[in-house]
Amino acid sequence: MSEPDSNDVRDLLGTALRDEPPSAFDPARMVRLGKRRVRLQRAGGALGAMVVAAVVTLGASLIHQGDHDRAGPDRISTAGTSGTTAPSSIPVTPSGPFPATITPPAYLPNGQRILTAQNQVVAAWLLPSGMSVTSGSLIFTPILPATDTGYSGAQLNVRLNDKFGFGDFSLSATVIDSSVNGMSCTNSKMTCQVQLISGVTVEIETDHPTAHTTRVFTVAASGKIVVNGEVDNLASPAGKTATRPTLPLTSDQLAHITVAVAVAGQ
Amino acid sequence: MDRRDREFAEFAQTRSTALRRTAFLLCGDWQRAEDIVQTALVKLYVSWHRVHRDGNIDAYVRTILTRTAIDEFRRAHRRRETLMDAPPEVPAHQSNSEDAIDVQRVLDQLPAGQRAVIVLRYWEDLSITETAQTLRISEGTVKSQTAKALTSMRKLLGPGTIAFEELA
């Protein structure tokens, strides 16, 4: 058995580089291209999330319709979604100050149904087409305000098992701040006016304990709020990826937030 | 430029020449090599925070670079592949200015996988394990691909171009 002298091979490879032309490499250009790529990814994810939200809304409306027609012969079956039926005693359209405890409404004002307890399973037919999630494996609960002044504790937990073997991938979103203070100066002599900009900051954290390739997740809230993220543990076999986007939600919208998550394998 | 941009630009500036050379050895064309480096660096930028935090930037960008180059190489190879009745004549070993062309021609004759193994092991000086991880193949495959590639290179370049250390 023989092994080549690695220096010989390296020298040989080096000869191939003799005619190396000068490089016009510009790191600033790389930064610009990188920024553009980030923007494109966000735009693409936003489009996908809008589709996801639309399909989820449609599915939820069908459930709502089915529940209203419960006594009728054409009621939409919810078999296979045990635990997802919301108690009818819960007020339909909460208004005014936020409740002191997490008491999710059964339905949103637009008729969209939300889940009312942890670890409920979404019916397979509610999942948007294109989602690589196996039947009954998407679990979510709505983000809701814990109190009327603070939002800590309102949390979303999602676990997904997709056909790519994403396994124990989990995603959690927590409302960690109810507002963002913005400051605008009215003149150059230190006279500034503090403005309170309505919005909430949501911490989204993904946990990917095993090695996988890139996955993209999209969170659509209330059918119009979109958060995009990417789990790419090509270099880090395991760990957590966190992002803290500030969502332009008003206080009223915050009470009616639902979340859909799509995981797309690449 | 914010901190991320500065750190990324500094890394890109420092490593661009080495990355470009590796990409060239993998694909055999300077223009394509530049494109491959650009692709790898843009992907790196997108994942910069995480990769930087994990402290394995070189391995990440090398992996992206290699896979992109292999894909490019295979696409280009398919485009220019032509069927011939007989294998091409083996060129006699030449020296000086034509060495570069010879070596390049020999590398072009290697399949993409073998070429990548040779470049990673002998140019990037990666271990068998590191090469296997980068290419996502087994260590046994790395060894067999290396042996096949070296045999082909010796045949094509002529005897004496690659010395062998006899092991017990």
Textual characterization of the structure:
The complex is a heterodimer of chains A (266) and B (168). Chain A contains 3 helices and 9 strands. With 266 residues, chain A is α+β, with helices and mostly antiparallel strands. In chain A, the strands form 2 sheets. In chain A, strands 2, 3, 4, 7 and 8 form a 5-stranded antiparallel β-sheet that branches. Chain A has a 3-stranded antiparallel β-sheet with strand order 6-5-9, with helices on one face. Chain B has 168 residues and is mainly alpha-helical. Chain B is 74% helix and 2% strand. Chain B contains 8 helices and 1 strand; from the N terminus they run H-H-H-H-H-H-H-H-E. The C terminus of chain B is likely disordered.
Q: Tags for this entry?
A:
heterodimer, A: 266 residues, alpha+beta, 5-stranded antiparallel β-sheet, 3 helices, disordered C terminus, B: 168 residues, mainly alpha, 74% helix
Could you outline the blueprint of secondary structure elements for this entry?
The complex is a heterodimer of chains A (266) and B (168).
Chain A: E1 2-4, H1 6-15, H2 27-68, E2 155-159, E3 170-185, E4 192-208, E5 215-221, E6 225-231, E7 239-243, E8 246-247, H3 251-254, E9 259-265
Antiparallel strand pairs in A: 2-3, 3-4, 4-7, 4-8, 5-6, 5-9
Chain B: H1 3-27, H2 30-46, H3 48-54, H4 57-80, H5 97-109, H6 112-123, H7 128-135, H8 139-157, E1 164-166
